[in-house]
Amino acid sequence: MPGPKANVDAADDPDDGDDGVRIDMISGARMEGLTTMEKIRLILDGVRDGNIVILEEGLSPDEESRLIEVTMTEISPDDFTGIEIETYPKAEAGDQSFLDKLMGRESTQKLTVIGPANRIETLHKDENLISTLVSRK
Amino acid sequence: MGLLTNLRDSISRVTDGLFAADEPKRIGIYGPPNAGKTTLANRIARDWTGDAVGPESHIPHETRRARRKENVEIERNGRKVTIDIVDTPGVTTKVDYKEFLDHDMEKDDAVRRSREATEGVAEAMHWLREDVDGVIYVLDSTTDPFTQVNTMLIGIIESQDLPALILANKTDLPGSDVQQIANAFPQHETIPLSALEGDNMDEVYTKIAEYFG
């Protein structure tokens, strides 16, 4: 099974050596079937490389909880200060069907932006708009 | 044989239920850094046991380990609820030791504090998934509640079906806006208080008994 790594080959990596900002937009299909830890590694490996990761469908609350936990274990002085993560506030539960609620299926579809804490800053956030400032390295 | 087994199971369920009812509920005090979680934990512990839980400070991440105060008995309207208060480190997704340098701290101390803070947040997340029976979520009512940490944590708490009481703290400060918090989390009841001044603690204790009793 191919690994969950989202990185393109180094030779094709446009972020290699210049001061641009690389954005990985990861589809829901790409995340589907990955385990929680594979998803977290996919995100954190990208973010630790200085990339902005955008998830089409976001993470479940349990995965978010584990993402925070793993992020904390990886923070180190002068190297990695953590992540900035933004999603729209949770939609009302009315979006879920009765069957989904009954079966405990959570709707996690919410566009999610994750980046290195020292490169991404949220300027404004409300129910309908997330405005962020991304700085170069 | 089947009848005996069923009878034994029934008795076991009843006795388990009786013991479970007597066991203190572990109530985690969660929220972002500097919301006043330890001030609240100390207020509750002092009011009902006479002891404090831990030191309070205006420097973020003063609490870097989850601290537990056991068997806090709260009596309300003839009803007694026994809880273990778990004061947790403020949850965040980032910790930069350089922020502590602004608080007259040497680099070594700042690095150590940030390392302890990250361990404490990881521990707090683990507690939330595994080891608490209910949550008191404390917010600073003078700051914007629409942060990602608040959104995520409330989502995590809801996904675990934990009873949650949202407290809008620091109502003694100018700029306190309780309604803003109520608007941010309309699916929950928001109780205003000043843990520092002890304002509205009567209502807080009534709600604790109601939610966690």
Automatic annotation (TrEMBL), chain A:
- Renumbered to this chain, region (Disordered) spans 1-20
Pfam families linked: OapB
Q: Provide the protein name.
A: DUF2073 domain-containing protein
Q: Native species of this protein? A: Halorubrum xinjiangense
InterPro entries assigned to the protein according to its UniProt record, in alphabetical order: OapB-like
UniProtKB/TrEMBL annotation, chain B:
User: InterPro entries from the xrefs?
Assistant: GTP-bd (IPR006073), P-loop_NTPase (IPR027417), Small_GTP-bd (IPR005225)
Name of the protein this chain belongs to:
G domain-containing protein
Which GO BP terms, alphabetically? tRNA methylation; tRNA wobble uridine modification
Domain named G: residues: 26-170
Q: Which GO terms describe its cellular component?
A: cytoplasm
| GO MF annotation, one | GTP binding
